[in-house]
Amino acid sequence: MEITAHIDALRHEGGLLADAAARTELDAPVPTCPEWRLRDLVLHTGHVHRWAATHLRDGRPAPMDEASQQAIWAETPDDAVLVDWFRAGHGALVDTLLAAPADLDCWTFLPTATSPLAFWARRQAHETAVHRIDADAAAGTEGPATAPELALDGIDELLRGFLSRGRSTLRSERPRTVLVSTTDGPGRWLATVSEEPLSVELTEAPADLTLTGPARDLYLLLWNRLPAGTGRVEHSGDETLLDLWRENATIG
């Protein structure tokens, strides 16, 4: 996806998240994040938007220090203004991305983007899209389907970005493979789970577990937003790998 497409997705998904929060009690539980109420979800995403915009706006060469981060996380608007506060931070992030120069140099934390600007646009698009799904779950609806292009991109960011980092907890004592194959796009990922960080090849080959389905449903499943037994994603092979995934393929 191009940077402009990621920014458009961020704008769209953030608007949907705010709309879901506006029509739902903020004390509603979030089924996809059992430890959170909707209030916590809106606060978290609003904080992340402000945190990301600060790195972009200031061209920070390193992550924010603890005091600077705490200043952002200390903002806790009352329920009466929480959704408006979220909309303001979301809009400011979109504007900051649009105004940033293509050669912006600042800190990033995943190696999969072509530039810092591309990284932040992509990361915030998926941060917001996944949490929009959570907000819809709190509202009692699945909400609009994730666009196939965005879903494909989000699967790739998860597999080749987050889960391939050294800090990932998705590990297996013996090497096992997962093939992720979309039915509505070109996405094919062969992931090897072992004692090392996840290894991913963009290819199709026999695997211990094969997951097949529309990109939007694979996106939900792999980000642990869709129960494995819904029937929307076909899976064949070693079912224990699905349990391992649900327990360990998490982003903190």
Q: Short summary of the structure?
A:
The chain has eight helices and five strands. The protein has 252 residues and is of the alpha+beta class.
Instruction: Tell me about the largest β-sheet.
Output: 5 strands, mixed
Class by SSE composition: alpha+beta
Q: What share of residues is helical?
A: 40-55%
Percent of sequence in beta strands: 5-15%
What's the average pLDDT?
Answer: 95
The rounded distance between the terminal residues' Cα atoms is 25 Å
- From the spread of the alpha carbons, the general shape counts as globular
Rounded to an integer in angstroms, the radius of gyration calculated over CA atoms is 18 Å
Strand order in the largest sheet: 3-2-1-4-5
Number of strands: 5
Assembly state = single chain
Number of helices: 8
Low-confidence stretches: none
Secondary-structure element sequence? HHHHHHEEEEHEH
Task: Describe the overall structure.
By secondary structure, the protein is α+β, with helices and mostly antiparallel strands. It contains 8 helices and 5 strands, in the order ααααααββββαβα. Strands 3-2-1-4-5 form a 5-stranded mixed beta sheet. A hairpin with a 5-residue loop joins strand 1 and strand 2. Helix 1 runs antiparallel to helix 4, helix 1 runs parallel beside helix 5 and helix 2 runs parallel beside helix 4. The longest helix has 23 residues. The protein is globular. It starts with a helix and ends with a helix.
Give structural attributes.
single chain, 252 residues, alpha+beta
Topology:
Blueprint (H helix, E strand, L loop, with lengths): L2 H20 L15 H21 L7 H8 L5 H21 L16 H23 L9 H15 L13 E7 L5 E6 L5 E3 L7 E5 L1 H8 L11 E4 L2 H9 L4
Parallel strand pairs: 1-4
Antiparallel strand pairs: 1-2, 2-3, 4-5
